[in-house]
Amino acid sequence: MSAFHAAAGWSAWPAPAKLNLFLRITGRRPDGYHALQTVFRLLDWGDTVHLRLRSDGVIARVGAGAAGVAEADDLLVRAANLLQKESKTPLGVDIGIEKRIPMGGGFGGGSSDAATVLVVLDRLWALGLGEERLARLGMALGADVPVFVRGHNAWAEGVGERLTPLDLPPAWYVVASPGVHAATAALFQAPDLTRDAAPVTIAGFLSGAVLDNAFEPVLRRQEPAVEALFLVLARIGTPRLTGSGSGCFVEFADRGSAEAALAALPPGVNAWLARGAERSPLLDAVEQLP
To answer: Which residues are catalytic?
Structure first.
């Protein structure tokens, strides 16, 4: 049983993972950042964020956070502090986390956790900042935070902040982690990273012709564990990398096919099933608030 139970004043909120169904780097911007194109697919699987309101203005992490992350650096705590500062609310919050999303896997765990804190505290603290303002705040925490704040599958450009909602067909995924942490900053500096890929269109993506990820060949060369995972997953379909992390996935049209594929993997592979969400389960949860 979770240590964060409702009887003690805690509430529980989903922080869904995401997949990047493709990712291209199309150039460099004047500010030095890379220009990207990608599609974010939200999943019905992820972390659970626990919140308990305080009236004394204190923001505190309760229990263990993500492994090796100090409380002051924790995106959950930083998100609450940012929202408190922006709104000047006198309220505080205790924050707990049940981590399921692997760190460094490219599944957006930290960004999603931060977005859940922003969206839910906006309601629980009765701030009424709204989606646009929360998305702008989220951008200060990380480029992936706005897509989780908005809660919709999306085509993304810029550094990932220019979002166009996208309706995606139902899908199930075998998702896998090789257990290594991919360092995003180092990957962006890799000399063999393709930074001038031809831009694609939404129609081009929807045709099924665009599946590449700029970081895949780099990571497969750098990390033997990622290469090994790709070779194993190739037995059940077409493996793809997500984001700039080490996590991989194979897409299936229905649950039965995904379950059969998962069962066919050899023992010892860290893989699991996840369903592609039509929209974030966080939106559904927040809509239940009075």
So the answer is: 18, 144
